[in-house]
Amino acid sequence: MKNDMSGFSKKPNLTEEDYYLSPEGYIIFTEKYHLKRGYCCKSGCKHCPYGFDKKTGQIKKNQ
Predict the structure, then answer these.
(1) How far apart are CA 26 and CA 56, in angstroms?
(2) 20 to 30 Å CA-CA from 18: which of 32, 38, 46, 61?
(3) How do residues 8-55 score in pLDDT, each as one tens digit?
């Protein structure tokens, strides 16, 4: 699969400042990680720096 151009074969290089584990064992991405990624995934992430509101499905522009 050397010529896989889908992007799914790439593994992100995560550092300790990119995430932490919740008491339940879930990975929680930090604001720094989201900014490093460069876009909003529109999943309603806890530390979303882009202002996405999961209830309305829109990004707040006044951030």
Answers:
(1) 25
(2) 61
(3) 556 668 899 999 999 999 999 999 999 999 999 999 999 999 999 889
Non-local CB neighbours of 28 within 8 Å, separated by 6+ positions: 19, 20, 21, 22, 46, 47
Q: Say which residue, 53 or 63, is predicted with more confidence.
A: 53
CA distance 14 to 20: 11
All structural domains of the chain with their residue ranges: 19-59
